[in-house]
Structure formats: C-alpha cells, structure tokens
Amino acid sequence: MDKWLDISQPLNEKTACWPGDTPFSYKLNWTKQDGGSVNVGQINLSTHLGTHIDAPFHFDDKGKKVIELNLDIYIGPARVICLPNPQCFSIHLLQNFDLDGVERLLIRTGSWQDRSIFPESIPPVEPELSGFLAEKGVKLLGLDLPSVDELDSKELPAHHQLYAHGIHILEGIILNQIEAGEYFLSALPLPLMDGDGSPVRAALKRIGI
Ligand SMILES: N[C@@H](CC(=O)c1ccccc1NC=O)C(=O)O
Ligand SMILES: [Zn+2]
Ligand SMILES: [Zn+2]
C-alpha cells in the first residue's frame, strides 16, 4: 500500500500570506501549564492562506459558499504534470499533454521557490485555457502557486472563466517532491457555512504503478 504524500503547506506564523491579508496565528486559551485540565487553542487565519480552495463566493457575490461545494471535486484520481517555470498557463503549453479524461489536474511549476516569502509575480492561467481543460473533463485545477490570476489582477479573469467552465480551484499545493503521474487526491475543505475559501489538508497517494 503506497503512503500518503502530504502536499500541504505547514501552517504557522511564518506561512507566507497575501500582502495585507490575515496571517496565521495560534494561541492557547487554556493551558495545562497554568493549572488547566487541558490545552485548548484558538486559530486565526485568512481563508486563502497556505494550501486552500476557492469557493465561487470568493469572486462572485452570488457564487457558492464552501459548504455547498460537492466533496467529489476534492477526492479522487488526479494527474500531476510538470511545467517548469512557465510564463503563463496557455492552451499552447498544455496541448503537449494527453489530458483526455483527467478530472483533477495538478501542475508542478516549481516557480515559488522560497515559500517563506510571498511571490512578487506569478505565471497566470490564460482564461481561454478554461474551455480547453473543461473539454478534457477537468473539474479541479491545482497549482503550486498562491493564485490562478496575476497577483495584482482586479478582474480575476481566470478565476471567473474556470468556474464558468465548471473547474474548481486548489491553490498553494507543494509538489516539489512529487513526480509526474497518476495519483489519488484528498483535499477536503472545512465545512465553512459562509466560507469564500478554505484551508485544506491536501495529500496524494500514487496509483497505477
Ligand atoms: N485570489 C486570491 C486571493 C486574493 O485575491 C486576495 C486574498 C487576500 C486579500 C486580497 C486578495 N485580493 C485582492 O485584490 C486567492 O484566490 O487566493
Ligand atoms: Zn484563494
Ligand atoms: Zn484563487
């Protein structure tokens, strides 16, 4: 039986955070050290910190909230492909891969080298890629980057176009140790009733070898 491979960013105060957004914090409200019977902590963080999924409500007031998202999107077979340091994610680049029947596509770019620093710029997903991926059957796109759009984008065209084509978004995965191939993915969001996004514990298990 193959091991689960953790592809999540560990969460602590140092986890790189979107500029101006809420960083991670954890504190103990009750402690054994102070005579309590248990340690009980409290966490505070942005819903878009670290490895996380976006709900459509993130960029559309009428969009689905996290609790409404189908769990099938986040559990099941996934293909990992390597695209080292792309300028952008275009149809031109992706058409070199056989993606027929791929439901969950995870792309390893290695573009975010120093995880302790939030990147200054990232390769964006070209909005036209959405239709191309949807035709292949993709319903989840995962990147080792903090967004699918340029970081200063206000219109978020890739976010909108992906969802318009039924493709959900997983951001900030760590794939440095993951070779291209077929895996089983588990990356369930928290049951946040009003959530615009959610941190996930993302993990892969090798299949088919
Ligand atoms: N789209 C990004 C997050 C994002 O855009 C964002 C996150 C926190 C604070 C501000 C943000 N965008 C501001 O224009 C994401 O999906 O994680
Ligand atoms: Zn996000
Ligand atoms: Zn996003």
From TrEMBL:
<feature type="binding site">
    <location>
        <position position="171"/>
    </location>
    <ligand>
        <name>Zn(2+) 1</name>
    </ligand>
</feature>
<dbReference type="GO" id="GO:0008270">
    <property type="term" value="F:zinc ion binding"/>
</dbReference>
<dbReference type="InterPro" id="IPR007325">
    <property type="entry name" value="KFase/CYL"/>
</dbReference>
<comment type="subunit">
    <text>Homodimer.</text>
</comment>
<feature type="binding site">
    <location>
        <position position="159"/>
    </location>
    <ligand>
        <name>Zn(2+) 2</name>
    </ligand>
</feature>
<keyword id="KW-0823">Tryptophan catabolism</keyword>
<feature type="binding site">
    <location>
        <position position="54"/>
    </location>
    <ligand>
        <name>Zn(2+) 1</name>
    </ligand>
</feature>
<feature type="binding site">
    <location>
        <position position="52"/>
    </location>
    <ligand>
        <name>Zn(2+) 1</name>
    </ligand>
</feature>
<keyword id="KW-0378">Hydrolase</keyword>
<dbReference type="Pfam" id="PF04199">
    <property type="entry name" value="Cyclase"/>
</dbReference>
<feature type="binding site">
    <location>
        <position position="48"/>
    </location>
    <ligand>
        <name>Zn(2+) 1</name>
    </ligand>
</feature>
<dbReference type="GO" id="GO:0004328">
    <property type="term" value="F:formamidase activity"/>
</dbReference>
<feature type="binding site">
    <location>
        <position position="54"/>
    </location>
    <ligand>
        <name>Zn(2+) 2</name>
    </ligand>
</feature>
<feature type="binding site">
    <location>
        <position position="18"/>
    </location>
    <ligand>
        <name>substrate</name>
    </ligand>
</feature>
<dbReference type="GO" id="GO:0019441">
    <property type="term" value="P:L-tryptophan catabolic process to kynurenine"/>
</dbReference>
<feature type="active site" description="Proton donor/acceptor">
    <location>
        <position position="58"/>
    </location>
</feature>
<comment type="function">
    <text>Catalyzes the hydrolysis of N-formyl-L-kynurenine to L-kynurenine, the second step in the kynurenine pathway of tryptophan degradation.</text>
</comment>
<keyword id="KW-0862">Zinc</keyword>
<dbReference type="GO" id="GO:0004061">
    <property type="term" value="F:arylformamidase activity"/>
</dbReference>
<dbReference type="InterPro" id="IPR017484">
    <property type="entry name" value="Kynurenine_formamidase_bac"/>
</dbReference>
<protein>
    <recommendedName>
        <fullName>Kynurenine formamidase</fullName>
        <ecNumber>3.5.1.9</ecNumber>
    </recommendedName>
</protein>
<comment type="pathway">
    <text>Amino-acid degradation; L-tryptophan degradation via kynurenine pathway; L-kynurenine from L-tryptophan: step 2/2.</text>
</comment>
<comment type="similarity">
    <text>Belongs to the Cyclase 1 superfamily. KynB family.</text>
</comment>
<dbReference type="InterPro" id="IPR037175">
    <property type="entry name" value="KFase_sf"/>
</dbReference>
<keyword id="KW-0479">Metal-binding</keyword>
<feature type="binding site">
    <location>
        <position position="171"/>
    </location>
    <ligand>
        <name>Zn(2+) 2</name>
    </ligand>
</feature>
